[in-house]
Amino acid sequence: MKKKLISLVLAMAMSLTAFAACNKEDTNSDGAYGDKKVGVCIYQFSDNFMTLFRTELENYLIEQGFSKKNITIVDGANDQATQSAQIDNFIAQGVDVLIINPVNSSSASTITDKVVAAGIPLVYINREPDAAEEARWAENDWDVCYVGCDARQSGTMQGEIIADLGLDTIDMNGNGMVDYIMIEGDPENVDAQYRTEYSIAALEDAGLTVNCLDDQVGMWEQVKGQELVGNDLSQFGSDIEVVFCNNDAMALGALQAIQTAGRTVGSDIYLVGVDALTEVVQYVIDGTITGTVFNDHFSQSHSAADAAINYITDTPNEHYIGCDYVKVTTENAQEILDLVS
Ligand code: GAL
């Protein structure tokens, strides 16, 4: 009899443990915002930087007390029509807040109109809508804001990293100019426009004369970066002194092309990106990539989640929530690597 009782108690304890383990899957169903539904639209899942961003965003939302099952993150597959249908779906489901990384920033006014009409607060991330669109949020006192960095700053930092090398180092062909190629991200996106413009403006502000050998669109993608830089290296050869890439994924592609062409970063060519992907920061430490700029996905995703929480709890937000970039060179690369890895 006693034995039977012990095994009954044991069985009950085991099933309780199993129940607790199952519940762990969804630790925060009782969290502060356990019943709140968050819809997150990402322009494209295959984007390296946005992958870091969305992973951190989800983790942080869960830490803040949201339930994993109530956070839905969808892939816009770089197609605005697909993303617009996803937004319609979230509206139909009645989510409590939307966090949107638009495929086309120019579609923001249409998106804002329908989300506001549905009475859902909206946090834009990463791809900044234009000034006229942002002005409407303030004028109408809508629960709409943007969280991101000022891309001009990242461009300036890229230019400074190169300018700081000094003309004597950069100007290997001795023509008195910085001969460069530019590999751009999606030109619809202000990040690409500003980085392209401000990186070169920083060289000129440092008193350097520039010579653009080629400017191509790599759409933020490594494969395209490799292909475009490979073509340019065949066409312009040793005349290319600097390769500017609007982001690190394309810089990784550029590096492959540079190595294939038998060139060596740091001795006969210079290369900069933006984002501070772990791999790239390691290359900066090794001297294989000249420098990058840290695009702080921790700060941006946390601010976006905090803004969403504010709206959910009826607390207003500023309409523009900024974040600083950080220049990454051999001097601080280890520090940045410790932070991102
Ligand atoms: C930029 C980032 C790029 C890409 C782009 C997508 O801020 O540097 O790597 O993710 O956003 O809009």
Any key phrases for this structure?
341 residues; alpha/beta; Rossmann fold; 2 domains; 6-stranded parallel β-sheet; 4-stranded parallel β-sheet; 12 strands; disordered N terminus
Description:
This protein is of the alpha/beta class. The chain has 2 domains: 2-150 and 296-324, Rossmann fold (3-Layer(aba) Sandwich), CATH 3.40.50.2300; 152-294, Response regulator (Rossmann fold, 3-Layer(aba) Sandwich). 49% of the residues lie in helices and 15% in strands. A 6-stranded parallel beta sheet has the order 2-1-3-4-5-11, sandwiched between helices. The chain has a 4-stranded parallel beta sheet with strand order 7-6-8-9, with helices on both faces. Helix 2 links the parallel strand 1 and strand 2. The chain is elongated and about 65 Å long. The relative contact order is 0.11. Beta-D-galactopyranose binds at residues 47, 49-50, 126-127, 185, 189, 191, 220, 247, 249, 274-275, 295. Residues 47, 49-50, 126-127, 185, 189, 191, 220, 247, 249, 274-275, 295 line the site of beta-D-galactopyranose (GAL).
State the gist of this model.
This protein has 341 residues and is of the alpha/beta class. It has helices at 2-24, 48-63, 80-93, 108-117, 131-139, 151-163, 167-170, 190-205, 222-236, 248-260, 278-286, 297-312, 333-340; strands spanning 38-42, 71-75, 97-100, 122-125, 144-147, 178-184, 210-217, 242-245, 270-272, 292-294, 320-321, 326-328. It binds beta-D-galactopyranose (GAL).
